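Apologies for my clumsy wording, but are you able to produce some protein sequence, whichever is easiest, and the tokens describing how it folds?
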Amino acid sequence: MNLPALRGHNDALVLDLLRGAGPAGLGRTELAARTGLTPQAVSKITARLGADGLVAEAGRAASTGGKPRTLLRLVPDVRHAVGVHLDRDELRAVRVDLAGRVVAESEGPLDFRAGPEEAVEAVVRAVARVADPSGPPLLGVGVAAPGPLDHRVGVMGRVTGFPSWKGFPLRGVLEGRLGLPVLLDKDTNAGAAAAAGAWLRATWPDADAEADINADADADADADADSEVEADVGAGSGTGVGAGPGGDGHAGGGPRTCVYLHVGTGLGAGLWLGGGVYRGVRSAAGEFGHQVLLLDGPPCRCGARGCVEVLCLEAVNRGDLAGAARIVGEAAANLVALLDVDRVLLGGRVVAAAPDVFVARVGAVLAARRLDPARPVVALAGAGVAEGAAEMALAPLFGHAG
């Protein structure tokens, strides 16, 4: 048995549960019950995480007859991560804490057509702008870019309209320049991760409110924990990463299945299925914009005719946002019929220009075409792609695949 790996898995499982619980925290007994680990193992893990500054006391729970239980919480400010959204004409970078809350951001123009080398320099400058050399260490950098790309090896594919990017090892080049772990994924996948992160951030108060909560926390040490016998970390059987109350791949719950539809300089979908981003065998899942809606329609830059993307962007260019939203709705209805998801979340600059129009028109199409009385919720994503890229950079700390 690989004990270091097992310790890492169990540590991540506990951290994930504490992250989902927010500042209110959880007791060791609850952590043991939810992870399947023994109380002694949980005490050993939380002591180790406390020594690393990742976990602190959150006060005491109300007594139910015995000694009040000490509650533990995640310390969000002890580590940070950076997320970068490389769009075709702009770049946005954010630095986030462990709760996924943005603590610094920067944005500016980008010419994707100028090629990978210039984009690399832009990313390096953006990371430097949002980084804080005197602040918490950075766990890594998540980079979201237009697809197709190979998430597994960090290499760009032939981005539609930008052939010079094909085969460029963006992840490896950035790791060499930044000296940090880098995760590369499609912008739409990052958007799906952002949707999950936005739900999680809703459980955390703002920084001032959290400071008040922390000031009220009981600072007394837990004598019971000090007297617990350290047990082998392997004692007990973990239930698997993300086995929280929502049962959907992260401790705090949230939508079990959703699609994130990004409408910007292009169209794409991020698929959040079974509690995680679904990428497909070749990282090619989610090419939403290139499903054909109109046979022999206008040519698309992908080489086909009548694609959702070309039809939608033509409507946008002529100022018909309601028509663009209806086209997105028809394509979304196809996806919902295929995947049976709980939520359809909308994002991207075109949606941001007319959010009410897109939510209403996409929702109307889904209502008209529903085969089942229960139809998915249609809503705005609530967070940007850069935030989702940062969420992916945080993921390994909490036991999730990036």
In short: The first strand starts at residue 26 and ends at 27. The radius of gyration is 22 Å. The chain has a mean pLDDT of 83. The CA atoms of residues 279 and 285 lie 5 Å apart.
